[in-house]
């Protein structure tokens, strides 16, 4: 079954009681039992929900996995993976990753005795150098946020296999339509389903997909025991969004390629970070492990000026200045003060997150209108 067909049909079935083609919203906290322990497979809304089950099965199919587990946010999903570790364990992660993930790692889990090594994962040799007897997990984000670096998932899988480690990949920037880490050797795929999977900026949700039944059982236990579950209305909205994921991603990518090319030639723009450029350091790897190059890009002004960057971001009319990404509308953001503000300034600057760095989430509007909007906004920085 091809992707578009899976997006619409996998894991979902007409409601057996009414024939409703859309998965019903089972807005219930509990389920009636015939006698203690005798029920129809559902006991309590935190533990199971039919709408959530349909979404979990659908997401598993999209990532070519066996199991899907949904959570109340992407960070809740990341937190659940961290619960697979024990005090004294060590994690190798990218030095260029989402600020919320960095905050969760360094300010929550580090206090429980988990040690984190942040390295530029574009160099597999540097990753392997960090492996020691306490290493348990490699955490990959690719493309990275916000510098759009590319990490070779197959190379990370090779390291994980040889050292008997688990490999988790945050696939949020790519979505299942562009990249399937399980096929490349990852053990766990995590998504902020808030972003491309839902695609309409009206849901907060996270998801984990895996193939290992033991890992799945542990994650299901934490899903229920900790209770960070999404509500059935959000699951319904996410299922609805997924049905157009393949169509949206094509338009996202088409627009991103045009806008990246425009920015590359603009006299006020310094560097443009986009893996679709043939001279991007990770282009060859991205071409091998992704179907297209995504719809996220970042760029810096020729003059590293916070004041000028603010002028650009405040002058757009179609690009909305806001957190998040992956919706049908285009967003513009300032990583240093928004998505990555929780990362210390010296660490941000090491990875290239300068004061003038601007991140774009390219929507599905007409590309020509988006380019005109950026053109007039850049002129405001003169």
What does this structure look like?
The chain has 382 residues and is an alpha/beta fold. The protein folds into two domains: 3-242, Type I PLP-dependent aspartate aminotransferase-like (Major domain) (Aspartate Aminotransferase, domain 2), CATH 3.40.640; 245-379, Alpha-Beta Complex (Aspartate Aminotransferase, domain 1). It has helices at 3-9, 50-62, 74-82, 99-107, 124-130, 153-162, 175-178, 213-226, 232-242, 245-264, 283-289, 306-315, 345-350, 367-379; strands at residues 67-71, 90-94, 115-119, 135-141, 166-170, 188-192, 206-210, 269-273, 296-301, 320-321, 331-333, 357-361. The strands form two sheets. Strands 1-7-6-5-4-2-3 form a seven-stranded mixed β-sheet, with helices on both faces. It is globular. The model has no long low-confidence stretch (mean pLDDT 96).
Q: Which strand order do you get reading across the main beta sheet?
A: 1-7-6-5-4-2-3
Estimate nothing, just give the exact number of structural domains: 2
Work out the strand percent.
15-25%
End-to-end Cα distance: 52 Å
CATH architecture of the largest domain: 3-Layer(aba) Sandwich
- Gyration radius over CA: 21 Å
Shape: globular
Order of helices and strands: HHEHEHEHEHEHEEHHHEHEHEEHEH
Structural class: alpha/beta
Describe the structure concisely for a colleague.
The protein is α/β, with parallel strands linked by helices. The protein contains 14 helices and twelve strands.
């Amino acid at each position: 079954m091809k992707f578009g067909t899976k997006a619409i049909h996998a894991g979902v079935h007409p409601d057996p009681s009414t024939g409703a083609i859309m998965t019903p919203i089972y807005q219930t906290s509990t389920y009636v039992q015939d006698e203690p322990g005798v029920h129809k497979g559902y006991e309590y809304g935190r533990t199971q929900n039919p709408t959530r089950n349909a979404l979990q099965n659908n997401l598993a199919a999209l990532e070519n996995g066996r199991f899907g587990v949904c959570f109340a946010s992407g960070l809740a999903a990341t937190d659940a993976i961290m619960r697979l570790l024990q005090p004294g364990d060590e994690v190798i992660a990218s030095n260029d990753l989402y600020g919320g993930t960095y905050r969760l790692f360094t300010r929550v889990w580090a206090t429980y005795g988990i040690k984190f090594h942040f390295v530029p994962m574009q160099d597999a040799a540097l990753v392997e150098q960090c492996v020691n007897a306490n290493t348990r997990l490699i955490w990959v984000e690719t493309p990275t946020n916000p510098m759009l670096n590319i990490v070779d998932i197959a190379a990370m899988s090779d390291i994980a296999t040889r050292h008997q480690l688990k490999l988790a990949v945050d696939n949020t920037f790519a979505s299942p339509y562009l990249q399937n880490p399980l096929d490349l050797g990852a053990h766990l795929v995590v998504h902020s389903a808030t972003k491309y999977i839902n695609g309409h900026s009206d849901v907060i949700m996270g998801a984990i997909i895996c193939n290992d039944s033991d890992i799945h059982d542990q994650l299901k236990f934490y899903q229920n025991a900790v209770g960070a579950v999404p509500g059935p209305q959000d699951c319904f909205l996410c299922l609805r969004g997924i049905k157009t994921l393949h169509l949206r991603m094509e338009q996202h990518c088409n627009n991103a390629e045009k806008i990246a090319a425009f920015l590359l030639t603009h006299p006020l723009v310094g560097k443009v970070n986009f893996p679709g450029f043939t001279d991007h350091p990770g282009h060859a790897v991205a071409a091998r492990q992704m179907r297209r190059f995504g719809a996220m890009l970042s760029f810096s002004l020729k003059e590293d000026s916070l004041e000028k960057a603010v002028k650009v971001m405040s002058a757009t009319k179609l690009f909305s200045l806001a957190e998040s990404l992956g919706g049908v509308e285009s967003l513009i953001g300032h990583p240093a003060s928004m998505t990555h503000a929780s990362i210390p300034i010296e660490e941000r600057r090491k990875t290239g997150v300068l004061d003038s760095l601007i991140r774009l989430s390219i929507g599905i509007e007409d590309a020509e209108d988006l380019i005109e909007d950026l053109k007039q906004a850049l002129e405001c920085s003169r």
